[in-house]
Amino acid sequence: MPDKNLKKQLIIEAAIDVFSKNNFQNSTISQIAQKAEVAEGTIYQYFKNKEDLFFSIPVEKTKDFCRELELHLQGITGAFNKIRKFIWYYLYFFKMNPEYGRTLMLEMRVNKGFAKTKSYSSFKNLTDRILEIIKEGQEEGVIRKDVNIFITRQLILGILEHVVTRWLLKGEQYDLLEHCDEVNKLIIHGIGLTTDLNGLKRWREGQ
Amino acid sequence: MPDKNLKKQLIIEAAIDVFSKNNFQNSTISQIAQKAEVAEGTIYQYFKNKEDLFFSIPVEKTKDFCRELELHLQGITGAFNKIRKFIWYYLYFFKMNPEYGRTLMLEMRVNKGFAKTKSYSSFKNLTDRILEIIKEGQEEGVIRKDVNIFITRQLILGILEHVVTRWLLKGEQYDLLEHCDEVNKLIIHGIGLTTDLNGLKRWREGQ
DNA sequence: ATTCGTAATTGAATTTTGTTCATTAATAAT
DNA sequence: ATTATTAATGAACAAAATTCAATTACGAAT
Predict the structure, then answer these.
(1) Architecture of the B2-56 domain
(2) What is the largest distance, in Å, between two alpha-carbon atoms of chain A?
(3) In this structure, are residues B53 and B15 in contact, taking their beta carbons and an 8 Å threshold?
(4) Separation of CA A207 and C1' C8 in angstroms?
(5) Fewest beta carbons less than 10 Å away: which of A54, A77, A112, B115?
(6) B157 and A CB contact within 8 Å
(7) Is the pLDDT of residue B41 over 60?
(8) CA A40 → C1' D12, Å?
(9) Which of A189, A157, A145, A91 lies closest to B163, judged by CA?
(10) How far apart (Å, rounded) are the C-alpha atoms in residues B42 and B33?
(11) Which nucleotide is closest, CA of B51 to its C1'?
(12) Chain B CB within 8 Å of residue A173 CB
């Protein structure tokens, strides 16, 4: 029983390596087979096709991602503090796992088939978690209620994905955590520097 | 002379159709050739290879995108008003051109080769434009100065790309313009509903 | 220990698809 | 009309994904 998964894991290991160096299109089954020291046919014993192998890659890593996030959030109180930690951890994880980032951000996330994969189910935990935090913040009275919570989540995930994607496309040259505070500040307070206190009052009533 | 571009355009037309229905990987040259009613070899008269054809698709549309944006911004004063219009127009354009969106958002934007293409150069006008508006807002004193302008831009582009990408992945079922106001509100004011006026004061001084 | 049955593995054959190229057709120039 | 140049063709080629009949390894049963 562990033997079977061992070989499967061996192939995935090789696939991670090959797919993250080149991309999906430019990676070949024979490269992966060579690296895993199995015959090409063997791969098709464990995976339906090239795409299926590809989608199997981030399952485990994504589970780690969510599990560790939960750990990092332990003992933190207050929605804003949790969001700050979420932002930090999100960027930190991609900094530490760039090959995972390349596959997930540049290829999976943008694929229509992704929503049907196991990785997506794992990833959904993460996006569900941020939704919970948003609701918590609304109950605390620190997060605005006059905006759809899903749009609120899109603001947070949007900038994070954009920041990570840019970093990957630029070749991971700078430190991803560099602008952690600024991102946080923008999410919480927005770009506006209004002194319109009447306006402020109006938004509050908008809840 | 116009004959030559006519055939090239014909091929692009067919490519738009095929590439946006399936994706890059699952579209074949022979499908495109059939649809354009030319021989497969003819395509290679006009384009170096499949990828070159792919990247040629959004050149013209992207130029339109930028040109029309400029038109829509005409006569609007004040950074916030311009941003509001930018957001509206951005969403409006993808609503009207979903096949363009599918190619640009789900395939191009996330491709390392994209930054070297003509489409990217056009697209850069758009992202440069939002940067100008941000600077203008800072001079007006309505946009915070204690955050890197590039990060500020990433907030705006991030949520817009995320909103459009989600819409595309969900099969374009709902109206993309539905949440225009909410997006705007979040960008300008953030998710926070703080009454901490001392904090507010501190941020202002942070400029 | 030997046999038998099942599952895993192999790599050569097949299929699909991008790309090339020699040939043919069309167009323009003299 | 003849020639030169350019465009278009589709069969041939190459590369890579996928299949499959043959082989090997393994475990249980006798």
Answers:
(1) Orthogonal Bundle (1.10)
(2) 71
(3) yes
(4) 63
(5) A77
(6) yes
(7) yes
(8) 27
(9) A157
(10) 8
(11) C18
(12) no
